[in-house]
Every structure is written in structure tokens, then in C-alpha cells.
Known about the structure:
This protein is mainly alpha-helical.
Amino acid sequence: MNIFRLAGDMTHLASILVLLLKIHTIKSCAGISLRTQELYALVFITRYLDIFDGFSSIYNSIMKLIFLGSSLSIVWYMRRHKVVRRSYDKDQDTFRNQFIVLPCLLLALVFNHKFTFKEVMWTFSLYLEAVAILPQLVLLQRTRNIDNLTGQYVFLLGSYRALYILNWVYRYFTEPRFVRWTTWIAGFVQTLLYADFFYYYIVSWKNNVKLELPA
């Protein structure tokens, strides 16, 4: 544990809290991609298969339960809640998740540290998380009109991964033989996908105008 990882975890947690705040208080999921939320739920399910038999610390166990529970609850609200689901823009959120899931699964089957079920699923979760934001970014680009909470959610989600890159850099220089090429490459790709959004978010914040992405 170091300050960069802790900051990354708290930023990730903050992004989820912002999204849940929007869903619970405004009773709306407008601008939120169900496709992306389903991908994140799949990420956490496949990553935390060891939650009941691989205890490492109370902190890790609590964070795993929070991410699993929150991701599944968000999907449930968007699909089943009689009020929230009405605000979901199904016609705009048309990204086909199979074009993401299947390539990530094939990559995990070929490029992994050890060919076991848990290891392949863990590697799959890394690849999938790297690109899970794509349906959300596509939806925002289509709708263009982005409310404050949605913009904050995506910005915090991208910031969490950027902070994790700093965590890896710190560990590389402070821990002997710390090399995680699969994790590093997936994290770097994930951060790059946010670059365009970061630019327009910061510009809108600096100029105190509503966030809009180019068509």
C-alpha cells in the first residue's frame, strides 16, 4: 500500500458514489451506458473469484465486496427499477459488447501468467477493464449534452487509473523485481482512452462552461 494506490482506490470509490448519488437522488441514469456498467460488473466478477478463498487483508476484502456489490446494484437499477430505467436511453446506447468481450477472452487465453481458470479470468478482467469505458464514451459523444454528475463520474473513473499508473511507477522503483507487463499495458491503454475526454472536461471546467464532446 502507498499513497498513490490509496488515492486511486478512493477516487475509484468516489466515481461509484457519484453515480449512485445520481441514481438514488435524481432517480435518473440519463447519459449512463448500461453496456459499460455490465462490462464493469463482469470485470469484478471475474477478477474477484478468490474473494472467499484468497484472503489477503480486511481492506482488500472490503473493497472487493464494495466494487462487486455496487456494480451489480447499478446494473439492477438501470434494468429493473421502475423509475430509473425510464431515463435510460436505450436507442443511443447500442454498442455491441461482444465485440469487446470475445477479443479480451481470446487474449486472456493466449497471453496469461499461468493457464489456470482463475488466472485466465483475472487476466481477462484486466483486458476487459481497459476497454470497458468505450460504450460510455461512445454514448457521450452521441448525446453530447453531459450533465455535471455524469461528467464527474467519468472523470473520476479515468483519474483512478491514472493514479494507479503512478502507483506502479512508485512500486517499480521501491520494490525489487516488481514487473507486471500485462497489468501495465492494460492500464496504459485504459488511460489513453480517457485522454480526449480529460481534455474537454478540463477545458470546460477552466472556462466554466457546460461539458460537450465534439460530434
